[in-house]
Design goal:
Elements lengths: L15 H37 L7 H22 L8 H5 L3 H36 L11 H5 L1 H19 L15
């Protein structure tokens, strides 16, 4: 009997633009993971410095909130790529014809791509205004706001592009995550 690891995987030949999109999405996802590690490190450092040495930092809470914004924005495209977002599936599941259900889902992903692209456009305009006016954050550790906000339109643009990909190629186009072999 064939086990999942014994089944040969036929290589897919995706357009270069889809491969580039997946590479950028994966890069952002890895960056998001590193930012999460940085947040956890800053929290642990702050707790240690505050309670063990009685010397808290003045900047860690501000840095954690700034980093959190970038982390969430950079993770969103991967969630869209893998269809891991929150969705209400009552209507699609009620459609019994698989072709009609697939078309309905593609229409929804197309509308989602359009809305998210518009929001990316609006936020990019706002980031540009922050850059142009050199507006700083409020707090103990002040930085230009655009340093933080620039991650929002980038994440939204890549998320929109992933929805365009799902609209054109369907959920079948997403390569499954590689699972490590199971030891017996």
């Amino acid at each position: 009997m064939n086990q999942p690891n014994d089944i040969p995987i036929t290589p897919r030949h995706e357009p270069w633009l889809v491969r580039l999109l997946d590479a950028l999405t994966h890069f952002c996802y890895v960056m998001s993971g590193l930012l999460l590690l940085m947040i956890a490190t800053m929290y642990l450092m702050e707790v240690f410095l505050r309670y063990a040495i009685n010397a808290p930092t003045t900047w860690s809470i501000d840095m954690i909130s700034y980093t959190l914004c970038a982390m969430v924005s950079m993770a969103a495209p991967e969630l869209a790529r893998n269809n891991m977002h929150i969705s209400i599936t009552l209507v699609p599941e009620a459609i019994s014809n698989p072709d009609k259900r697939r078309n309905y889902v593609r229409i929804l992903t197309c509308l989602s791509a359009i809305v998210i692209a518009y929001v990316a456009y609006v936020t990019a305009g706002e980031v540009y205004k922050l850059f142009e006016r050199n507006i700083l954050t409020v707090g103990a550790f002040m930085v230009p706001k655009w340093w933080i906000a620039v991650f929002i339109p980038i994440g939204l643009l890549l998320t929109s592009a992933q929805y365009v990909r799902l609209t054109i190629y369907g959920a079948e186009s997403v390569k499954p995550a590689s699972n490590p072999p199971v030891s017996r």
